Amino acid sequence: MLAVSSNKGGVGKTTLATNLAIYLRALYEDLPILIFSLDDQGIIERMFGLEGRPPGDGNVKHGWAERSFERVIHLGQYGVHYVLSAPDTALLKARAEDPMTLRRILERTEWPGLVILDTKSDLEGLTRNALYAADRVLMPVSDWASLEEAGKGFAILRRAGFPERARIVLALVDRRTHLESTGEELAERLREEIRRRGWSLYETSISRSPRVEALNSETGHPLSILHAARGTAVHRELRELADEVARDLGLGPGQRTLPGGSRRPPVGSRGAVASFKSALLGGRVRR
């Protein structure tokens, strides 16, 4: 399982989680991807819900209560499976005192591919469940404040005995920003500090792009960077990051399921896969 977590809002956490799901599904057409959120903003279903096809009853809260998400998993846009978000997370929080609960639920669910989890912008019980359940935790960092907040996530993982699960992703860092005291580029200064602290860092960073930021506000449905932002730097960067994440998880050209996967997964239409591959090739780079 892959969790995307930050105690600070506005760092591109949900954008990263949703678009990585789409890019990885495109790159590994036989790998089933399941995404859900422990937040209550409803972005997951707005992005992945199929128009005119209500997914039916059941959301994260029901799966949590039943100790399996199997009944509430739906096939969505881009061939990505998803679980509806809980409209109110208060009951979920009450059931999240044991930080190992989510890991046990996922084991019972027996999803045969990759699970991607978007967390709330906090470090409370639900988020701690995600940190304990994940094989990799991606922590987006966009500035010095989010770097310090990432340190709190590392501390939780260190106390739990698995600090090696965490990875920093530089995201939404404005490359035009320089430190007043030294004139050094902010992104490079953040990289230096991350290395000094001994934290694992993905080489690929995700740029800030007004065009990409508009994808979440132009319509009522957030749009995929893969399909709606071809030719941008972010389109290319997300492809590179997806490759890097896949290697980190042990995926390769001939390896179409995660280790331990046994059942043949449901896949999207071949037309959709062809569209994904075409989009991955797309265009000259611009911001």
Features:
single chain, 287 residues, alpha/beta, Rossmann fold, 8-stranded mixed sheet, 12 helices, 8 strands, 40% helix, globular, disordered C terminus
Summing up helix and strand content along with how strands pair, one would put the structural category as alpha/beta
Structure summary, number of beta strands? 8
CATH architectural arrangement: 3-Layer(aba) Sandwich
Rg (CA only): 18 Å
| H/I helix tally | 12
CATH class: Alpha Beta
Overall shape: globular
Low-confidence stretches: 254-287
Q: State which percent range the strand residues make up.
A: 5-15%
Helical content stands at 40-55%
Order of SSEs: EHEHHEEHHEHEHEHEHHHH
Largest sheet: 8 strands, mixed
Could you state the CATH homologous superfamily? P-loop containing nucleotide triphosphate hydrolases
Tell me the count of domains: 1
Spatial order of the strands in the main sheet?
A: 3-4-2-5-1-6-7-8
Q: How widely separated are the two ends?
A: 31 Å
**CATH T-level topology:** Rossmann fold
Overall pLDDT: 84
Task: Please tell me about this protein's structure.
The chain is of the alpha/beta class and 287 residues long. 40% of the residues lie in helices and 12% in strands. The chain is built from twelve helices and eight strands. It has an eight-stranded mixed sheet with strand order 3-4-2-5-1-6-7-8, sandwiched between helices. Strand 3 and strand 4 form a beta hairpin. The relative contact order is 0.18.
